[in-house]
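Try this one yourself first.
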């Protein structure tokens, strides 16, 4: 009896760290700013067949409409109400997306913006994605409803009412982040409205949440609304399943607030990951790939089972948030594929792949003054994601997740799931290799000269297709072939001028 009780407690307390992806699906993709109808199509035609576990969607709740600048992507981080009504679609389209994706085993993770409402400088009116009235000056959001009582104005001790010093945890939690009206989450009423919004999404069928601006909420206040969440919808999830929670906390060290303050609520975004990986692959600050031998906790990152990891995110791919110039993005495509490949091959953390839209970057004094530009659109209507004959996306959707090298590494991660990190090799510089037990092996050449070595792969003897330079189709390799001997050894030759200077093989790509 005690054992059952213990297991049930462990089961629930563990649950919010469990991504709730179907067995054998080990990554999610952030389809940033996509419409719900396009996400539903992508689940069915691409994500399910290629083993993606889920989709992080842009905030689905009603947001302010910003005209200056014109419809910036970040207007979706200024809530007006919790109505499921945005440029991505309405509630009916949202429900349709969740059902169709869940039905093919691809789950939905919602970007929940619950620390604040819109900016205090926004003019009152109905200029919102669902036409709801709001009056920031009077703290009136009648569609929730929230009123003056529900904001932190009186609690914030800074002159401006805004966060002025990230060294002061009280300011960071109780003052306005860039002018965004800060909700009083110590109040039961506010907590109940946030829980009501999240439970509406859970009952529809979502699998979890990215909790925006978690650093700006007290962990205890977050626990108070998280504890009110329903179990996941039994149509698609087992009895008692809890929402996967990953909290956006930017902690590169040196601030009053630490990622570990939030471990009790769920996983946390590990921003050190992308910043360090970008520095290593760019070979800045004397960093080199040979140092990746102890990647993960060895580099001072949070415990692997608390980490949500990514190479770039929607903020730092355009200079917002954290990571600076080191962050690799689709603009740096050759190094980016290596970074995403490394992330997906390495066992550390739960992995999220970024999928972006292209915007007209324009640098002045080292800053992209077009960092605000919103999704591809026709007079404000988000453009459909068109699919080209070569399976890439049109209409300025980048679709990194459809790049062969990235798609195949999402599959690689699924194939090696649960296998240990083994057979590390390096040349003391930027040529490295490692395996995942007896199911996968990857080799990188980031030096300025050829890699040519015979390495112990740990894999069964046979001929393998390199899934970076090609695919295994029927019983043929469209790219490089690698022969593994009875002893598990294989010879690898990688030119430093190769289009993609890395090779990855696994047992499901074996002839
Ligand atoms: C400006 C001034 C304020 C002034 C205000 C008056 O800066 O001092 O009080 O006007 O209204 C936009 C503008 C910003 C403007 C604000 C309106 O860029 O200049 O303030 O709107 O108040 C995104 C963008 C922000 C954007 C915000 C709201 O990155 O530029 O602000 O959306 O539209 C920290 C946090 C971390 C955060 C990161 C960006 O710890 O949590 O900054 N990351 C998340 C999201 C991010 C989002 C927010 C948080 C806010 O990932 O995309 O910010 O929800 O590190
Ligand atoms: Ca706050």
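Now uncover the answer:
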């Amino acid at each position: 009896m005690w054992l059952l009780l213990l297991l049930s407690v462990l089961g629930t307390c563990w649950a919010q760290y469990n991504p709730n992806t179907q067995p054998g699906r080990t990554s999610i993709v952030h389809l940033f700013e996509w419409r719900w109808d396009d996400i539903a199509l992508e689940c069915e035609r691409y994500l399910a067949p290629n083993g993606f576990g889920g989709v992080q969607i842009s905030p689905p709740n009603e947001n302010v409409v910003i005209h200056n600048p014109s419809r910036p992507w970040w207007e979706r981080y200024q809530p007006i109400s919790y109505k499921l009504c945005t440029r991505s679609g309405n509630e009916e389209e949202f429900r349709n997306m969740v059902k169709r994706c869940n039905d093919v085993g691809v789950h939905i993770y919602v970007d929940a913006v619950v620390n604040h409402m819109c900016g205090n400088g926004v003019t009152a009116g109905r200029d919102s994605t669902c036409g709801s009235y709001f009056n920031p000056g009077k703290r009136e959001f009648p569609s929730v409803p929230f009123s003056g009582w529900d904001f932190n104005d009186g609690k914030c001790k800074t002159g401006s009412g805004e966060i002025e010093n990230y060294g002061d945890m009280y300011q960071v939690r109780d003052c306005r982040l860039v002018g965004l009206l800060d909700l009083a989450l110590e109040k039961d009423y506010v907590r109940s409205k946030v829980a009501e919004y999240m439970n509406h999404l859970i009952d529809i069928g979502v699998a979890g949440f990215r909790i925006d601006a978690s650093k700006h909420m007290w962990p205890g206040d977050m626990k108070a609304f998280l504890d009110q969440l329903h179990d996941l919808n039994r149509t698609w999830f087992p009895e008692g399943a809890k929402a996967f929670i990953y909290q956006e906390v930017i902690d590169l060290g040196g601030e009053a607030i630490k990622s570990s303050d939030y471990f009790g609520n769920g996983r946390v975004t590990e921003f050190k990951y992308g910043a360090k990986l970008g520095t290593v692959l760019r070979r800045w600050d004397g960093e080199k790939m040979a140092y990746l031998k102890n990647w993960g906790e060895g580099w001072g990152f949070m415990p692997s089972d608390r980490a949500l990891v990514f190479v770039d995110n929607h903020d730092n791919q355009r200079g917002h948030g954290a990571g600076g110039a080191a962050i690799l993005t689709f603009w740096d495509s050759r190094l980016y594929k290596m970074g995403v490949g490394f992330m997906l091959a390495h066992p550390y953390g739960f992995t999220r792949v970024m999928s972006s839209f292209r915007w007209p970057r324009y640098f002045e004094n080292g800053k992209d003054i077009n960092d605000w530009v919103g999704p591809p659109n026709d007079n404000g209507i988000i453009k459909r994601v068109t699919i080209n004959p070569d399976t890439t996306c049109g209409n300025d959707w980048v679709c990194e997740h459809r790049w062969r090298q990235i798609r195949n590494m999402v599959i690689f991660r699924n194939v090696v799931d649960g296998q240990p990190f083994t057979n590390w090799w390096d040349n003391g510089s930027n040529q490295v290799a490692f395996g995942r037990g007896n199911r996968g092996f990857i080799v990188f050449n980031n030096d300025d000269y050829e890699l040519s070595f015979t390495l112990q792969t740990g894999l069964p003897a046979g001929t393998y297709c390199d899934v970076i330079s090609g695919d295994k189709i029927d019983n043929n390799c469209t790219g490089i072939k690698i022969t593994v001997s009875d002893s598990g050894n294989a010879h690898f030759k990688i030119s430093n001028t190769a289009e993609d200077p890395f090779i990855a093989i696994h047992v499901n790509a074996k002839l």
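Discussion: The chain has a mean pLDDT of 97. Residues 115, 173, 182, 216-217 surround calcium ion (ligand 2) (CB under 6 Å).
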